[in-house]
Design brief:
Layout lengths: L10 H13 L3 E4 L38 E2 L2 E2 L10 H7 L11 E4 L9 H12 L5 H9 L5 H4 L3
Antiparallel strand pairs: 1-4, 2-3
């Protein structure tokens, strides 16, 4: 999810950008088939793997997760360069499944569904502390609209 702010954006668009930034931590990527680039897809929660290595050997540029995962084992010997140990350990928690697509899911629901109810629950658990509850409530419920429009709310 990558939204940019535009000069002169409407109030609605600015609010969508703000909400997207707040909700981004609740979206996770679930690896299925593994037909994703090892280097250039954000299949891990933290960062792109390319950010953890100094260079990528030209032989490995187009390598996918499924290229080095066979028989429930990661085959690091097939990668021409040396992958740092901490990155390899992150891979160990991933198991590919040819019958499942790679999907982006809403963490609060643990499936592919997204609802206002789960979003509100996730936001209140994640963002609200005793210190922030007043500012959070105003962020959700305070509308900066013309007075004649506020009348209908």
């Amino acid at each position: 999810m990558c939204l940019r702010e535009y000069n002169g954006a409407s109030y609605s668009w600015a609010f969508i950008i703000k909400a997207t930034e707040a909700l981004q931590d609740g979206v996770i990527f679930r690896v299925g088939r593994g037909d994703l680039s090892i280097w250039y897809n954000k299949w891990d929660q933290d960062e792109y793997v390319v950010g953890f290595v100094n260079y990528i050997n030209i032989q490995d540029v187009n390598m996918t997760l499924r290229d080095i995962f066979r028989n429930v084992i990661w085959h690091w010997n097939e990668v021409a360069m040396i992958i740092p140990l901490d990155i390899r350990q992150k891979f160990n928690s991933i198991f590919l499944n040819d019958n499942t697509p790679n999907v982006i899911i809403w963490e609060a629901a643990q499936d592919e569904s997204f609802s206002t109810k789960t979003t509100y629950g996730w936001l209140t658990r994640t963002l609200v502390t005793p210190r922030t509850s007043a500012s959070y409530n105003s962020w959700v419920w305070e509308f900066l609209l013309p007075e004649n429009t506020n009348f209908f709310l």
